[in-house]
């Protein structure tokens, strides 16, 4: 089992000063993660999503963390790859440079950046976004697997060389953001790792792993994106761990509620997130869940568990012992890497540090010793 930390760059009650402090705090948390035994950090890339994510230039954040650490892997979770966000050659150049300077510690995931706000900010064509992500992956791996590259698809590139080449050969491990069964199947078919996002818990994880494995079993050699296959299945695990279980649950549920509300605001047109740290997270999540179910019923949409997965509150918000049990459940569901989501908008920095420390001292060692 591997363990990583997920940085979304969330911020309640944003001001320039608080934003700057949050980013510095995130670097401190990443450095501590290396010191206590985490294997990897992941940083998102989002644009224009006030409250939900102020991590708009994750390549800079990851470079800064790489310079402050020696061992921990650094992951783009993910790069937004539709062409209006950034040209695929530029993605390859930046990623290779960071891989070289970090000593071959980079992992790179791909995604759409699918909110209306982000797409409007960059002029992304929603209808073409998914196909452009797929084409970008072909271009990037092609650059890294050849000395002289040329491409003629929906865009024309080259011919020419694209230095530098990454330190990891033929290239850093590749991942795909997977929030739906369709993207899980795509990742499995291409032979790239799955970053399973969300709050679903072990039961939903088991179903998603089954879908991933079914597609993996059916894939042919010509389906593979690269000569190097990465079948790692990584799942987000929201968590706050303190000695006081009740306090941890109160803080964790409030953080989850902020995460869900700010996400719903940008992706579903909901109200701006409630920013009062004293809000009862459990009650607020229950209330919003009821609203979602009512909307589904009004539109006669057949119920599917993933529609309300964000409102699942069965997470390790409590003691380290609870976190150990959750890791065992996730391992039983087929998870290869647990991605700890700690930095949710209203979770204080000192609580983030303590949670990271407790995972490093009391949770991760239990699974190292079982190898």
TrEMBL record:
Q: Which ranges of the sequence are coiled-coil?
A: none
- What are the alphabetically sorted keywords of the record? Monooxygenase, Oxidoreductase
Q: Which Pfam families does UniProt cross-reference here? A: Bac_luciferase
Q: Where is the Luciferase-like domain?
A: 1-337
Give the source's domain of life in one word: Bacteria
MF terms from GO for this chain are: monooxygenase activity; oxidoreductase activity, acting on paired donors, with incorporation or reduction of molecular oxygen
GO CC aspect terms: cytosol
| Name this protein carries in UniProt | LLM class flavin-dependent oxidoreductase
Give the organism the record lists.
Answer: Streptomyces xinghaiensis
């Amino acid at each position: 089992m591997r363990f990583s930390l997920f940085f979304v760059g969330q911020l309640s009650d944003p001001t320039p000063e608080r934003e700057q402090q949050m980013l510095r705090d995130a670097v401190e948390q990443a450095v501590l993660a290396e010191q206590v035994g985490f294997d990897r950090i992941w940083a998102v890339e989002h644009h224009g999503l006030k409250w939900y994510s102020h991590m708009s230039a994750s390549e800079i954040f990851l470079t800064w963390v790489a310079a402050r650490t020696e061992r921990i892997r650094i992951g783009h979770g993910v790069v937004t790859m539709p062409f209006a966000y950034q040209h695929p050659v530029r993605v390859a150049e930046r990623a290779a440079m960071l891989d070289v300077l970090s000593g071959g510690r980079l992992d790179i995931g791909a995604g759409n950046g699918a909110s209306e706000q982000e797409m409007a900010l960059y002029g992304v064509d929603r209808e073409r976004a998914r196909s452009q992500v797929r084409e970008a992956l072909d271009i990037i791996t092609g650059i890294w697997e050849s000395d002289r590259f040329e491409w003629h698809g929906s865009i024309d590139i080259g011919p020419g060389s694209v230095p530098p080449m990454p330190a990891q050969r033929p290239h850093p491990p590749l991942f795909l953001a997977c929030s739906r069964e369709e993207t899980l199947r795509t990742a499995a078919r291409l032979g790239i790792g799955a970053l399973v996002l969300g709050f679903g818990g072990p039961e939903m994880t088991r179903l998603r792993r089954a879908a991933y494995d079914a597609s993996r079993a059916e894939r042919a050699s010509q389906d593979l994106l690269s000569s190097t296959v990465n079948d790692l299945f990584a799942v987000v695990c929201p968590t706050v761990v303190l000695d006081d279980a009740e306090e941890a649950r109160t803080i964790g549920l409030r953080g989850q509620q902020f995460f869900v509300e700010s996400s719903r605001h940008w992706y579903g047109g909901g109200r701006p997130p409630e920013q009062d740290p004293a809000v009862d997270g459990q009650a607020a999540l229950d209330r919003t869940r009821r609203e979602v179910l009512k909307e589904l019923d009004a539109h006669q949409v057949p119920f599917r568990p993933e529609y309300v997965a964000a409102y699942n509150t069965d997470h390790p918000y409590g003691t380290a012992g609870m976190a150990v049990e959750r890791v065992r459940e996730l391992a039983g569901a087929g998870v290869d890497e647990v991605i700890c989501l700690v930095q949710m908008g209203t979770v204080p920095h000192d609580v983030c540090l303590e949670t990271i420390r407790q995972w490093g001292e009391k949770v991760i060692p239990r699974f190292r010793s079982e190898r």
